[in-house]
């Protein structure tokens, strides 16, 4: 059996940094330990990116496949040069506009980053997060910090400390509880190694945001069309992800049509003895009177939906649901990232 370690949980306000706790956390990082910290997207499980043994502990704690590379987090753009071979002008421009923030850039790596971090690729994923706790921890430890999302591999990413505790208690040295993360889904991963900036994982910084700065941007074909023939450039995208225990069914179409169909299917599934939950939106709640629903957010404000999505999926699990019926949302802007995660969480799509 895996040996349990003592996990210290500390609470900190992202806007009111406690330097003593940050010092303690940085000592853990520098000794090769593991610290979970909040970012503006989701919680990260962090270790010294230059210490292979420490990085290995991340893979073990998450149960993460070794061929899925990690994101390296920095606290200042000036730290980029030590990690990557070259920073193209386009990457510089994106960094200028969107760092700190929910953007991860793929660049050719220097040897200082080991195969452990990059899963043997010649590129590395680098991000400069916005959350003040994350930044303080990176600065204080004086190390780049490798940090994937702090969930057990395959489960929805954690957006509050209770999710981390569910997955990683006894497997990490410290959890810094900084409250709920605001964006709620992971950063945009963009490949900057070729001529065309290519989004490998949609997130908080949208295609339109990138186009505004660079004039062009594409999605990796693998995230537009899921086909077994297209191998995603981002290794993480090939795994089933974000899956609650319950079966998720995704409904696409006009909001009212979807809602009416979901209400009908709910009755049917319930009559078969299944525990059914509906992931609704402010606009459609009225169709579900008397049914078990969680309202994910407002269709006109996608950030309300992204920030609740993973929490709601986990909440349905806590309620012991067998099936979750979820409405699709408009794929514009942040909606693209929301639909990418819902697509991966679901095992079935119904077009209404
Ligand atoms: O918002 C986020 O990005 C969070 C917070 C903690 O920063 N982190 C996160 O990490 O979501 P993770 O490990 O769960 O997702 C990293 C993604 C994976 O899909 C991985 O395959 C991809 O980035 N990735 C990492 N290095 C890559 C590389 N060199 N080339 C292509 N994809 C890469
Ligand atoms: Mg992840």
Compact overview of the structure:
This protein is 32% helix and 19% strand.
Description:
It contains 11 helices and 16 strands. The chain is an alpha/beta fold and 352 residues long. The protein has 2 domains: 8-224, DHBP synthase, CATH 3.90.870.10; 247-351, Threonylcarbamoyl-AMP synthase, C-terminal domain (Rossmann fold). The strands form 2 sheets. Strands 1-8-2-3-7-4-6-5-9-10-11 form an 11-stranded mixed beta sheet, sandwiched between helices. Strands 14-13-15-12-16 form a 5-stranded parallel beta sheet, sandwiched between helices. Strand 2 and strand 3 form a beta hairpin. Helix 1 (19-30) crosses helix 5 and helix 10 packs parallel to helix 11 (334-345). The model has no long low-confidence stretch (mean pLDDT 95). Bound molecules: threonylcarbamoyladenylate and magnesium ion (MG). Residues 148-149, 157 line the site of magnesium ion.
Keyword list:
binds threonylcarbamoyladenylate, binds magnesium ion, eleven-stranded mixed beta sheet, five-stranded parallel beta sheet, 352 residues, single chain, alpha/beta, 2 domains, Rossmann fold
